[in-house]
Structures are given as structure tokens and as C-alpha cells.
Amino acid sequence: MNILEEIVKTKEVEVARRKEVVSVMQLEKYPGFQRTCNSLKAALQKEGSSGIIAEFKQKSPSKGEINFEAKVEEVTKDYANAGAAGLSVLTDHDYFGGALANLAKARAANPEIPILRKDFMIDEYQVVEAKAFGTDVILLIAACLGKKQAKVLAKKAKTLGMEVLMEVHNVEELELVNEFIDLVGVNNRNLKTFEVDVETSVRLAGLISERVVKISESGLSGVKEIQYLRQNGFQGFLIGETFMKTENPGKACRTFIGNLKG
């Protein structure tokens, strides 16, 4: 069993447990469920956009602890003030140290900026949950979904007014991209081996439909990489570790965006 398969099995147990604690009907009464979502697609396409989706991530299976001192409301607000086009918040606890509470705090601190819920989505319950906690965009990871399952989850998100980011790693996974997908992210990190190669984004760029916004994810640490990826049609760049491993993630984000625009 590889790490992705292990995560999905853990997630199945976790979701079943949460369903017993809070029902869908209860989630639909949460204040966040009624709000109108912010568009990440529009934010990335806006003229002058930095294209940066700044992520709040405190640990990962490949790196271990990254930054447990950081406070989500402070860091995400600093990211937004630094010029990030969007935010990404990890909600998986067991493997990434995330929490739904972090999502709620980020939302309260940043009402106007698009927020992506970063988790392993395998059940419609999680989609409803995402909306209830103030999410604008859900992540669907092609590597852990079937084609039918991906379509059901994406359609559910769209009916709730959210956008959908489909994450792929190879050509085969592009087959899961359906009419409900707004953004396609190429993860440069292989979730089965954790090896990183930015050329993964470049290889897949020309195969991704022009209908969606292209996002490059993982292993991005330099301005030249962003410029190179832009030349290959990417408008979004998800960056977490590069910022989070510093003492002041918000400041690191501001410096990065400043260098990008300079």
C-alpha cells in the first residue's frame, strides 16, 4: 500500500465518523453555507494578478513538521495583504496537521479572497462540509478518484456555488477532467513517491483544455520558475512550504510577490 492509498483508507474512516457527529442537514444550517463564493478563476485571470495561491500548511508526510508556531488567521491575512490571488488551507489532520477550524478562522479573517479547501475529497458529505465552513473552491485529486466519482463530487460542488480544482499528475488522470471542472492543477510532486519535478507541469500544459485555468502545484520556490511556467500557459501557482518554512510566512510571501512583479 502506497501513502496515497493509506491516506484514502484513513479518510474513509474519518468521514464516516464525522457523519455520525454532524449531519448534512445540520451543516446546511451553518452560516457559511448561505454565503456567495468568491471566484478563484476570476482572481487568477484578473489583469495584474500575482497568480499566487498561498497555502497554510503545518506539516506533510514528506517533510514532517514545517511550522506549528504559525497562526492561521495571522498568516492568511498576511498572505492576502501581500497580494496573493487566493489562499489554500489544509484540513486533513492526520497527515498534514490541518483542521476544519483553520478553514473557519481563515474565512473569518479574509472574507473577500478565494479560499481553497485542501483535503482528500472522496465523499459528497465533504463537499457540503466545505461549503458550510466557508470554502470557495474544493480540490479533487484524480489519483484517488474514479471517473464517475469525480464527476459526482464536482457536480455537487457546482450546485452549491463552489468552483472545482482538479489535481492531476499525468496524462491518464486528465481523463477525469469533466465539464464541472473550473481549474486544473498539475502537482509536480508524485503523491506515490513524493519526488518533485516542475517539468511535469510543462509536459501536461498543452494537453489541458483552454476552457480551464491552469495551476502548477508543489516544488515552486523561485521567481524564474513562475516566469517559465507562465510562458507555458499557467496562471496559478500554489506555494506553501516555501513560505511556511520561514519564521514569517506572510513576509516571505510579500517578498516573493514583490520580486515577481519587479
From TrEMBL:
It holds the Pfam family IGPS. The keyword Cell inner membrane does not apply. Residues 4-255 form the Indole-3-glycerol phosphate synthase domain. Keywords: Amino-acid biosynthesis, Aromatic amino acid biosynthesis, Decarboxylase, Lyase, Tryptophan biosynthesis. Pathway: Amino-acid biosynthesis; L-tryptophan biosynthesis; L-tryptophan from chorismate: step 4/5. Gene3D superfamilies: Aldolase class I (3.20.20.70). GO terms for biological process: L-tryptophan biosynthetic process. It catalyses: 1-(2-carboxyphenylamino)-1-deoxy-D-ribulose 5-phosphate + H(+) = (1S,2R)-1-C-(indol-3-yl)glycerol 3-phosphate + CO2 + H2O. It is an enzyme of class 4 (lyase). Its EC number is 4.1.1.48. PANTHER family: INDOLE-3-GLYCEROL-PHOSPHATE SYNTHASE, TRYPTOPHAN BIOSYNTHESIS PROTEIN. This is indole-3-glycerol-phosphate synthase.
